[in-house]
Structures are given as structure tokens and as C-alpha cells.
Specification:
It is built from 9 helices and 14 strands. By secondary structure, the protein is of the alpha+beta class. The protein has a 5-stranded mixed sheet. The protein has a 3-stranded antiparallel sheet with strand order 6-5-9, with helices on one face. Helix 1 runs antiparallel to helix 3. It is globular and about 65 Å long. The N and C termini lie far apart (62 Å).
Length: 334
């Protein structure tokens, strides 16, 4: 095979170097296979990324090689790929790419980007999230069926609060539920809403669901990872390829599919077939935008009536007002 290929995407020419480089040895998938995959699901992944500051998770030598997260736009960024300046919790800032066409996805794939991590904001306003992302993370002793059950309970809770969510596999063992928002709340408020939802789920199923930040306190439960809504925390986008030996992808689903679907059903080979048959099953997501007033009222009641305030932030975040001590319970005892 040629050392370089040129691919036309929507009138753009994207150069693909070393297209026969093997990225997934277990399946034999190459860089060209990854590129063809992103072409096949182009409209779907562009919907998930459009105008969002996006971090690139790069595996230039494939999934068995070294990897890194690239937050700052590469120096060789083409002029036709826009950027947006985002602020990190540290106070530093960076310009991240904001894909507006499928060619930008392929351009990143040529750099070895497998997984795209978009912020829950658009470049027009990088301080007000327009998406609440609820990450249901299975802990040791649980399985995908436990995650699905928790997702169903979350769906019911959202409906009670006048909200709707769109589920997808994480590409690993978990499930993400995306709730489109009116971009009017801060990162702190959206995170507070995620905590309130998690706590309500925990009250309804304390033996199966937890919001405990410290792993030693979680047990064999589904963890509602509320900190995935903190500033500079992201989840893999819909249709992103994950660094799994079997080349699994993050698959958007309809709610009625969730019970029977399994993460391993969706990979670099099977997803294009599904996409050709069904299209983007999350295509209607952006036609909606919900407000968090009722969820934040739930958070207020938690604090007022139950004395439940903030929960710990990730360790790389500065200490926040009202945040409890970031000390493992087992260490705090000593």
C-alpha cells in the first residue's frame, strides 16, 4: 500500500500517512480501517462534536503503544479547523479544536486519534454547558446488566423532573446518559444537578447505586460519577473508537434497545453496518433543550432538609468553597 493516501471529504482533501499501520493487532484493523469507520459514521460523530472544544486521545502506534491526551490544538492545525479558548481549573487556558466538518475528524484520525473527548459546551459560550452527561460506572462485583437497570431508574427519575435523556454505551462497561440543556447554568451548577440526581437514585436503590467518591466506600454498586460534569472532565463522544483490543466504540442507543444491547456488539466493523441501516439514532437530541430548575431545587432540599452539601472534586481541581475534605475515610480515621 502507498505510504500516503489522499481522501476527499466534503470538498476537503485529507492526507493519510502510513494507512496500513496496524492499530488493533487482535482484529488486524489499520489506520485506514479507522479512517473508513469515521467516514461511515461521519454525520453522527460530527453531530456529537460540532463546535465543541475537543480533546484528542491519541494512539500514534496503535492500542498496544503509548498514548496521550492532546488538549491544545496541534501546531500544524489547518486553517479551516476552528478553535475555542477554554479555561482549566488551574486558571490556565488553551485553544482546543472545534470540529465543524467531518474532514476535521479524519484529520485527527491521521494523527492517531481514536477517541474524541468533547467539552459539554460550544465555542460560542465556553462557560455554560449545553449538555448534562450522567456517567453510570460499574464497580467490581457488578456487570452491564446492573448498569442497564440503573439507567432505567435514571430514565424514570428524569421523566419525573420533566427531563429526557439519550443513552449510549461508553465503549467499555458503562453507560452514559446525555441530557441536552439550555446553556444558562455554570459548570458548578450542572455538577450540583448531577450530584442531586445521583443522590436520589442512591436513596431509591441504596443496595445497588452509590455516589461515594472514595472507591473503598462504593462496594459492588453502580457509581454515578458526578465529577464527569466538573470543568475539564469529559466523556468519550458518541461513535468514538475506544482503545479496547476488540476496537469497541461508544454506541448511541434507543432506550428500548438498552436491555438487549451489549458493549461488545458495537465495534469498528459492526457499527458502520448498524449506521447504514438506522442512521444516527441520537439525531433528534439537539432539537431539545431542558432547564435544571427542578433538579437544582432537589439539590436545595438535600442541603436544607438533609444536610447534604457538596462532594469531593477530582484531585487536580483547586479546593472549592463548601467542599468536604479530600481525605480517604480510612486515612481520616488515623
Amino acid at each position: 500500500m502507498a505510504e500516503t493516501l489522499e481522501i476527499d471529504v466534503g470538498g476537503r482533501t485529507v492526507r493519510l500517512s502510513h494507512p496500513d499501520k496496524v492499530y488493533f493487532p487482535e482484529r488486524g484493523f489499520t489506520k485506514l480501517d479507522v479512517t473508513r469507520y469515521y467516514l461511515a459514521v461521519g454525520d453522527g460523530i460530527l453531530r456529537a462534536l460540532r463546535d465543541r472544544p475537543t480533546t484528542l486521545e491519541r494512539y500514534p502506534d496503535g492500542v498496544t503503544g503509548s498514548s496521550f491526551f492532546q488538549k491544545r490544538a496541534p501546531k500544524n492545525l489547518p486553517g479551516w479547523i476552528p478553535t475555542a479558548r477554554i479555561a482549566f481549573p488551574s486558571g490556565r487556558s488553551a485553544d482546543e479544536i472545534c470540529p465543524t466538518e467531518t474532514a476535521a475528524v479524519l484529520w485527527a484520525a491521521n494523527l492517531g486519534c481514536l477517541t474524541f473527548h468533547p467539552w459539554p459546551v460550544r465555542r460560542a459560550d465556553t462557560e455554560r454547558p449545553d449538555e448534562l452527561r450522567i456517567d453510570l460506572d460499574p464497580q467490581p462485583g457488578t456487570d452491564y446488566g446492573d448498569v442497564v437497570r440503573a439507567a432505567g431508574e435514571l430514565r424514570a427519575l428524569l421523566a419525573e423532573l420533566g427531563l429526557s435523556g439519550w443513552p449510549k454505551t461508553s465503549g467499555g462497561r458503562g453507560v452514559h446518559v446525555l441530557v441536552p440543556l439550555v446553556p444558562e447554568r455554570t459548570f458548578t451548577e450542572v455538577r450540583r444537578a448531577a450530584i442531586a440526581l445521583g443522590r436520589e437514585l442512591e436513596r431509591r436503590a441504596p443496595e445497588r447505586i452509590t455516589t461515594a467518591w472514595w472507591k473503598e466506600e462504593r462496594g459492588a454498586k453502580i457509581f454515578v460519577d458526578y465529577n464527569q460534569t466538573a470543568r475539564d472532565r469529559t466523556v468519550a463522544s458518541a461513535y468514538s473508537v475506544r482503545p479496547h483490543p476488540r476496537a469497541q466504540v461508544s454506541a448511541p442507543l434507543r432506550w428500548e434497545e438498552l436491555d438487549d444491547a451489549r458493549p461488545e456488539d458495537f465495534d469498528l466493523a459492526s457499527m458502520p453496518v448498524r449506521y447504514a441501516d438506522l442512521g444516527d439514532v441520537h439525531s433528534g437530541l439537539e432539537e431539545h433543550a431542558f432547564r435544571l430548575d427542578d433538579v437544582l431545587e432537589l439539590a436545595e432540599r438535600d442541603q436544607r432538609d438533609r444536610g447534604l452539601g457538596d462532594l469531593p472534586y477530582p484531585p487536580d481541581h483547586p479546593k472549592m468553597a463548601g467542599e468536604p475534605k479530600r481525605v480517604q475515610p480510612s486515612r481520616a480515621k488515623h
